[in-house]
């Protein structure tokens, strides 16, 4: 008993010093390079944005921001790496709709809890999806496409990058809103998916502007609408109507990204990161450098991003259950 009391006393004396040391470390943050885990291979939209953000944060924070690509397993590999690192703000993560929301409906036993294991820092950006058809499809607008689908239920098809992904969810939202039956054709990658749409093997696809725009300009695809309620800012796609304009406002799925860290990271570190991220992504030069991608910059406070994460983590798994996605 005496030994226990002595141990308890020692711990009680130590805790204030430990807390003070943690506070001091947070107040001087950062004092060493920061690892930025990006769950995509090099070259894509997420990687391009992350490297631009890393350069800006390097200038703001005065420390190197080292981008480390960790693609695979629906972004789970990258998420798990962040959770193995200390909760000190020196490992940050490019979270997304996939890693923070739809994975909850895709896996029976996800190895992490997006809302409990991660702390929100800031929203970053989003991109709408474009409904594009093979250039030889007779339909010149969404109304005609819906009429074609109703005349031949199940004959028209759409490509996606797999069950539960944003392209799949957009197709199912469209099918439901228009009360039509479309054949879902999942692919393992964007290149084979878009290739089969361009060749006429598949009728249509919902995909990002950076993928669709070059093929529309080349005459291989025809863009009929863009998800959400706003038209595109991408050169050559400004005249493509929004889904809201053509009568389907519920088809508002896009893809979003945000910056997160491990839960338990000192709030002062989270706030410093959020402040500097907001400054970087609000810079006109930063925005101009990404204007051709058609993305929408969306900075936020940690609190606002947390509320958004919560709503998305509830919305998409429920919708996936409704359309019959079986968790793996």
- The number of domains: 2
Portion of residues within helices: 40-55%
Apparent shape: globular
Tell how many strands the DSSP assignment holds: 10
- Poorly predicted spans: none
User: Mean of residue pLDDT?
Assistant: 91
- The first-to-last residue Cα distance is 51 Å
Beta fraction: 15-25%
Main β-sheet, in a few words? 10 strands, mixed
- What would you report as the Rg, rounded to the nearest angstrom? 23 Å
Tell me the CATH superfamily of the largest domain. Bordetella uptake gene, domain 1
Q: In the CATH classification, which architecture of the largest domain applies?
A: 3-Layer(aba) Sandwich
Structural class of the helices, strands and pairings? Answer: alpha/beta
- Tally of individual helices: 12
CATH class of the largest domain: Alpha Beta
- Please trace the helix and strand order, writing H or E for each element: HEHEHEHHEHEHEHEHEEHHEH
What's the CATH topology name of the largest domain?
D-Maltodextrin-Binding Protein, domain 2
